[in-house]
Amino acid sequence: MKILLVLTIGLIILISIVSKYGSDANIYQMPLPERLMSCLKNRTYGVSPTEYPGEDVTTFCVQEHLWVDSKKIFPYEVTEDTSRWILRLFDKGRREKEQILRERKEYRMLTKRERDDYHRAVQLLKQDKSVWPNKYDAIANFHRGDSIRSAHFGPAFPGWHRVFCLIFEEALREIIPSVTLPYWDCTLDGEMKNPEDSIIFSKLFVGNPDGLVTDGPYANWHHEKGGPLTRNVGAVGRPMNKTDLENVLSRKYQHEILDPTAKELKYNFERNHGKSHAFVGGNMARLRSTAEDPLFFSYHAFIDCIWEKFRIQQMKNGIDPSKDYPNTNDPLHHPYRLMDGFINQNYTNIDGYSHHFTRDIYTCQEFPTCSPDYPDCGSFWLYCDRTKWVCVSKSYKEHLNHFDSTPVVLNTVQNRFEINGKADMDAWVYLTVKVYVTRPPTVNIKSYAIRDGKASSSDVFSTSHYQIMSEKIHPGNPKSYSRRTSNGSGMEKIFIQTDGLNYYGTSLEYAIVDERFAMAEAITYVPVKNPGSGVTKVLLTAFDSGGRLCRPFCKSSDTYEFEPCSGAVAIDSTSPLMYGKTYANNILSRYEFKQDFPYSQDRGIFIIYFCDFQEVWPWDIAWNKGGC
């Protein structure tokens, strides 16, 4: 009887401990991985958040960190049939010497016949299953795993992708010999007020911009394991624009534009190129899946044309670009290291800098331009902006009824629910995340204060009217992308992005806040990998539609108050769960339905984000307080 009494008392004590302290028993803070922290610190050393949108920096560093670890998390094996076929394409491209150089044109400069032939060749490549799983995916799969360890974040980047695009072009020409890979000049879209409305994202070119791709030449495409082809165009960031292009072309030597020796972010070619990947979103947003969208190849054909323009400038300045390979301490990018992925034992990284490609095989048609003397851009799908004398893409919405299109601010996002190459929603669980937002100083709502019959120049919600608020709330003004999502109503999205640190998977969700007010808050439910019997390690990053970063705060295991943290957390399945197996579980956990109306509670929240737009990098704050 005494033993039973002792056990009962012990159980009561244990239950009380779990009730009081167990709310975060299965989720805890982590420091940022050393490589990721080093990248963030190095990229922002001497740089103010007023100069670059923070999301731009974090995306680059997270991609770099995950890229290095992807071969451990997500290895990829190439079949013998694929190897033989790729080797044949590679050798053909290496030895080819055209009597008349192929001309790579801007996508919108193609004739209808040329565009139809190109689309048909890509479709037939996808349908050809003579190599596993099909010829298109067999090529796309080279942009992952061990096969391309030297393709990014170093001087081999432009040469490797030059070879990769040529292999794709050779595969297309096996089907239709007249086809040449068109390039996508995203700066034509960058000049638009709403680049996500570009005619490129229509059924005439690459298909719809948002969600599952269900129209156009690549409608309803699937990767063999990675799920359907998706895009979230315009949800995050902006495309590379003419200023970015001019910054790159303003330099003289390769080491001034290539990672890691490019001294300033604005001159970093690879970083600038990454903006359009993030802008398109979906498959294009992540290195492992990016080539699953055919737009990837047209985009990298454009990156190659920019590089060629840079190389031509070098030759005019007496520099031989084939020998101007930057010094590097990274053995993967050593000039005489064998190039990854193309199954040839005699082709090195510096061979990607050879003159052979544009001397013997192809050339780039000049980028579309206009001027007072030549005000025509040469394509029905482009027009000349005569205020700046630049060519701009037409909008696909010009051909739609007003009610057929949705403003990007109202679009949702489509997650791919892919983990380590397999797409399945049941492998994910949901964290509840809360965000607090102070009103950015640049916001102006068209609802004005009126005193003595006169309207104020600032809106009625502005903190300038209320001293008691302006004393408490001091938002900064860090650099942002152009605020394309603002529709004048005050509605704003705060995005929460997750990137697996011990799994290869990412997700994007958002909370909707009302930025009319000096302070607002909202809740969202964010997908992360189900820890199962193990541990999920994941990084959460928050930013507004302008790319301005929010600061993470995690619940302290000592005080149970929220404190600055890195945004990296570890999650296991110890009870009580701090996640829901579906977002419905999170909602039912957050709200109690004891009366005729619900009561909300925050006990299941471990991480919150404060978007107060300080002019300091979030990792510097967490670093100083021990959170990183």
Compose a concise summary of this entry:
With 628 residues, the chain is of the alpha+beta class. The chain has helices at 2-21, 34-43, 54-73, 80-95, 112-127, 135-140, 157-175, 187-190, 242-249, 269-280, 295-316, 356-361, 467-470, 583-590, 618-624; strands at residues 27-30, 102-104, 210-212, 222-223, 227-228, 230-232, 362-364, 382-385, 390-393, 418-419, 422-423, 428-438, 448-451, 454-459, 491-500, 506-514, 519-529, 536-544, 551-555, 562-564, 568-571, 591-592, 599-600, 607-611.
Any chance you could write out the topology, listing elements then pairs?
Blueprint: H1 2-21, E1 27-30, H2 34-43, H3 54-73, H4 80-95, E2 102-104, H5 112-127, H6 135-140, H7 157-175, H8 187-190, E3 210-212, E4 222-223, E5 227-228, E6 230-232, H9 242-249, H10 269-280, H11 295-316, H12 356-361, E7 362-364, E8 382-385, E9 390-393, E10 418-419, E11 422-423, E12 428-438, E13 448-451, E14 454-459, H13 467-470, E15 491-500, E16 506-514, E17 519-529, E18 536-544, E19 551-555, E20 562-564, E21 568-571, H14 583-590, E22 591-592, E23 599-600, E24 607-611, H15 618-624
Parallel strand pairs: 2-7, 12-24
Antiparallel strand pairs: 1-21, 3-6, 4-5, 8-9, 10-11, 12-17, 13-14, 15-16, 15-18, 18-21, 19-20, 19-24, 22-23
Helix pairs in contact: 2-3, 3-10, 4-7, 5-7, 7-11
Keywords: Copper, Metal-binding, Signal
Organism: Mytilus coruscus
Protein name: Tyrosinase copper-binding domain-containing protein
